[in-house]
Design brief:
This protein is of the alpha/beta class. It has helices spanning about 15-30, 45-55, 115-125, 135-145, 160-170, 175-185, 195-200, 230-245, 270-275, 295-305, and strands at about 1-5, 35-40, 60, 70-75, 90-95, 110, 205-210, 210-220, 250-255, 260-265, 285-290. Helices cover about 40% and strands about 20% of the residues. The protein has a six-stranded parallel β-sheet with strand order 3-2-1-4-5-6. A five-stranded mixed β-sheet has the order 7-8-9-10-11. Bound molecules: manganese (II) ion (MN). Manganese (II) ion binds near residues 116 and 117.
Length: about 300
């Protein structure tokens, strides 16, 4: 039997490397079946950079998962699952996001409140005494460092830190902080990208009550690099909101050195968004100190009000 392990519609490094590394592990543990890592969309720039750096091939994009056997990694909300999922045979989920999942049959569902899905997969290698090839360990380390913002994000747990140390040993990467900074430099080099690509680099849809939200995040080592592009980004966000019927489109630019985020917001209800963020928007923008995580901070703040 063929089983596809897929990332979400906005495939980031964690989702992509989770699919690749879980397929490798599953093929070792269960050779009777064939596990294939696939992507639910175009890869973003740091994902391409890491796969190339460590000689891993890009998973093929699967446009529709109708009728296929599927394992979801790094997501479980239907708005983030690839087209055709209503008629897919989802057999397993491995994720570290809030659970908003419904399926008509019993399945394996593994959810851990850890900093990245690759941490959960790395632990599975240990539990099953399967060795990670060096290049895979390096890519998994990169994914955990990105998802936890080099351990600075409030989503980062002690378990993630232990796994980071283990993986850097296997990968032969002595200074994982420096390795992480190098990836963030690739991630935040926005100057040559179109505004829409900057917005969509790490963009997810959410439903809060009856409202559709789109929330993108960019982590950067220097907010000033993006500043000259802000007006252009707001214009693109306005278009995106109209074309896709969003109630609100948020892009937040996280300064990983100073640990805070600048929010750009296009919304149908400014007062309510301000209430959720506990901050006043000036010209659709506001800087909020100590906010670094979409999952653990921004989404819960919005869910409380909407
Ligand atoms: Mn993740």
């Amino acid at each position: 039997m063929k089983i596809h392990i897929t990332s979400h519609k906005s495939p980031d490094l964690d989702a992509t490397v989770a699919a690749i590394s879980y397929a490798y592990l599953k093929n070792k543990l269960d050779p009777a079946n064939e596990y294939i890592a696939v992507s639910a969309g175009e890869l973003n720039k740091e994902t391409k950079f890491i796969l190339e750096k460590f000689n891993l091939s890009e998973p093929a994009i699967l446009e529709n998962i109708k009728g296929l056997n599927i394992i979801l990694v790094d997501h479980n909300e239907s708005s983030q699952i690839q087209e055709g999922h209503e008629e897919a045979n989802i057999i397993e989920v491995v994720d570290h996001h809030k659970i908003n999942f419904n399926f008509n049959a019993p399945i394996f569902f593994e959810s851990k409140p850890w900093g990245s899905t690759c941490s959960i997969i790395a632990r599975k290698y240990c539990e099953n005494s399967i060795e990670k090839p060096k290049n895979l360990a390096s890519a998994m380390l990169a994914a955990i460092l990105v998802d936890t913002v080099i351990t600075k994000s409030p989503t980062c747990t002690e378990t993630d830190k232990k796994i980071i140390n283990k993986l850097s040993n296997i990968a032969g990467i002595e200074d994982w902080k420096e390795f992480g900074m190098d990836i963030f430099k690739v991630r935040s080099s926005v100057s040559k990208y179109e505004a829409i690509d900057i917005i969509k680099n790490d963009f997810k849809d959410f439903e809060f009550g009856e409202y559709k939200f789109g929330i993108g995040q960019i982590e950067t080592v220097d907010l000033h690099e993006i500043e000259p592009r802000e007006e252009e980004l707001l214009i693109e966000m306005t278009k995106l909101k109209e074309e896709n019927n969003y109630h609100t489109v948020i892009l937040f630019l996280t300064d990983i050195i100073n640990e805070g985020s600048k929010f750009l917001v296009i919304t149908s209800d400014q007062a309510k968004v301000e209430q959720a963020l506990k901050s006043k928007l000036i010209d659709s923008k506001v800087y909020i100190k100590d906010i670094m995580s979409r999952k653990k901070q921004v989404v819960p703040m919005l869910m409380e009000i909407f």
